[in-house]
Amino acid sequence: MNRLLRPSDFEGNSDEIARMLIGTTLLVDGAGGRIVETEAYDRLDPASHSFSGPTPRNEVMFGPPGRVYVYRSYGIHWCLNFVCREKGHGAGVLIRAIEPTHGIDLMRARRGMDDVRQLCSGPGKLGQALAITRALNGMRLDQSPFGVLVAENELDRTVKVVAGPRIGITKAMEVHWRFGEAGSKFLSRKF
Description:
Layout: E1 2-4, H1 14-21, E2 25-28, E3 31-41, E4 68-73, E5 77-84, E6 91-102, H2 104-111, H3 116-119, H4 123-129, E7 146-151, E8 161-164, E9 178-181
Antiparallel strand pairs: 1-7, 2-3, 2-7, 3-6, 3-9, 4-5, 5-6, 8-9
């Protein structure tokens, strides 16, 4: 049996939430799959959008927790993040990759490709496959079109998680806040 994660489930530190999300199921309007890769960012982290304080672009990152923070990367790709910690702190988790399980044909059409392994194996690919846009910024994760599901039984949630340096950043590169499911074929990059 699965349960929907609530905003209170996102009140912890971003690195703890990023690790906890591995193996949960993310759905956006019925398309999605198992989260297999995440990255954590925090207000005290120089690689985080929130490091210099709130701006019109990043204000959603400052809470409340359990909301979606969407930003455009390289002026091209929409990236999906989950807001963590208490209101005003400025922390989040970037969803880097999922293993597609729901709405695969829809995601194939959005991405213009058939290879299931490549549909959502990176934040930009994931954003395109799930039709993530700025219009979703600030929405609650426990309300339509979103759903993040976790197995209620702790034994059903046992996933081996590995950690390593984050990808595509120039600051705090030594911080091992990239998390992934060990052995997954759906990661954006091997650990």
